[in-house]
Amino acid sequence: QVQLVESGGGLVQAGGSLTLYCAASGRTISTYAMAWFRQAPGKEREFVGTINRGGGYTIYVDSVKGRFSISRDDAKNTVYLQMNSLKPEDTAVYYCAARQYGVGRPIDKYDYWGQGTQVTVSS
Asked: How far is it, in rounded angstroms, from Cα 89 to Cα 114?
């Protein structure tokens, strides 16, 4: 089993930056594709971005492309989400997730989830 714990959320002004952290335990994340999702109040959980095993490539939803970046440090069993040029519409609970097979957007393909960390972007 893999346990995932997100941290780094908080309140930031529009245009600011924030770094989220996903700390994994129980198993090394080296064999998992890792991803970030987010969910705003009253909205469905949506895909934000993912990084493949080995970190060779990333995929992002169009709305965050060029502003957010995902990285991983398998030696530290940690995944990062660097968020720049934040907008109020980025406000959501951000979740870290891991999948054993493949890589991509479908939420049902992810095997493990964290509890989320709140990101609030003020106008």
From this structure: 22
Please name the residues in contact with 118: beta carbons below 8 A apart, sequence gap of 6 or more: 9, 10, 92, 93, 94
For 4-15, how does the pLDDT look when each residue is reduced to its tens digit (9 = 90+)?
999 999 999 999
Give yes or no for a contact between 75 and 17, defined as CB atoms under 8 angstroms apart.
no
Q: Report how far residue 33's alpha carbon sits from residue 25's, in angstroms, rounded to the nearest whole number.
A: 15
Beta pairing partners, 37: 47, 95
Q: What confidence tens digit (pLDDT) does each residue in 89-99 have?
A: 999 999 999 99
CA–CA separation, 41 and 34 (whole Å): 24
Q: How far apart are CA 52 and CA 71, in angstroms?
A: 10
Give how far Cα 73 sits from Cα of 77, 86, 123, Å: 6, 24, 33
Give residues with Cβ within 8 angstroms of 76, minimum separation 6: none
Query: CA of 10: how far to CAs of 5, 18, 37, 49, 58, in Å?
Result: 15, 8, 16, 20, 25
What DSSP state is assigned to residue 101?
Answer: S
